[in-house]
Amino acid sequence: MENLDVMVLRTLRDWRLAGERALLTTVVRTWGSSPRPVGSIMALAESGAVVGSVSGGCIEDDLIARYTRAHGAQEGMPSGPPTLIKYGITADEAHRFGLPCGGTLELLLEYDPDAASLAALVESLEQGRLMRRTVMLADGAVQLAEATAPAELTVDDKTLVNTFGPEYRMLLIGAGQLAEYLSTMAKFSGFAVTLCDPRAEYRTGWTTPGVTISTEMPDDAVQAFKPDRRSCVVALTHDPKLDDLALLEALQSEAFYVGAIGSRRNAQARRERMIEHFDQTEQSLARLRGPIGIYVGSKTPPEIAVSVMAEILAVKNGVTLPREMEVAVAKAAAMG
C-alpha cells in the first residue's frame, strides 16, 4: 500500500482533472480523544467516492450524505471558500458520530481544489520532495513550497499550513522468506520497499509484488538508495560480507533505523568486527540495532517480521520502548 496522503492527493487530482467536483477534508484540530490525528486528509467526489479517512467512518458517512447527490444531498456540493466544521461538540454528537468519549474534531473543507496545483503537489511528492501546502482561508487559494523539514499542521484565522512528505522508505538487504513477510508489512504500513540481493539464487523465489529489486552489492545499494530521515535499512542475510559494509554506509546516513537480524552472539560479533577491522567505536555504532525487533517469543518468519516491524514503527513514531521489550534484554532475563 502506498503512502496514504499521496494516494488521497493523487486520486483527488485525477477527479479534478476529469472535471469532477470534489472536496478535500483535513483534520485541523482535535480535543480529547480522536480517531485520526491532526493533518489527516480525505477526498470526497460528488459521485460519492471516498479515499482517505478522518474518523472511524461515521463522519465520512455524514459528509457523503451532505455533499453528494448520489447519496441524497439536496443541493450537492457547494462552491466558494473553505469552511470549518466541528464534530462531537456534545456527548450526543460524539456518540452519534462514533467518536471516543469526550472527543471533538474540527475539519477544513476545501471545495473543488485547483487541479493544476494538485498535479504539481503530487509530482513533487513522487519525486521525493517534502512539500509545504498553504491554504488561504478567505478564498481557498493555495501556495506550494518545498520544505526543509517535516512540520506539524498549523492553522490560524487566515491560513492553514500542512506539510506533506515523501513516502517512508525501507531498504532490505537479503531476499528470503523473512524479507517477504517484512516487505509486505512495510507496504501495508505505507513504506516504499527496495530489496537488495546480489545473489541470483536467492532472488529467483521472490514473489512479493510492488518491491523495487536491486542486484548491486549492498553497500553500493545503500549509497544509491540515499537514506534520509524517512528511511530505514534492515540487513537480513546473516552474511558479514553482505551486511557489514551496507550497515556502515547506512550508519553514516540520516536513516531513522539501522539494524540487522541475528542472535545476541552474532550481534556482538558484528560489533567486534566493525571495531577491529573498520575503525568503529562503541559511540559510532550506537545507532546500530541488533538483535532487532521487540521480544514476543517469536520463532517463525512471520512472527519475527511482526516483531521487527513493530520496533521500526515505534522508532518512526518516536515511542521509547521499555528495555524489557528488547530481544537481548528479554532473552537474558529469561535465561536467568
From TrEMBL:
It comes from the Bacteria. Residues 170-312 form the XdhC Rossmann domain. Gene3D superfamilies: NAD(P)-binding Rossmann-like Domain. Residues 15-72 form the XdhC- CoxI domain. This is XdhC family protein. It comes from Variovorax defluvii.
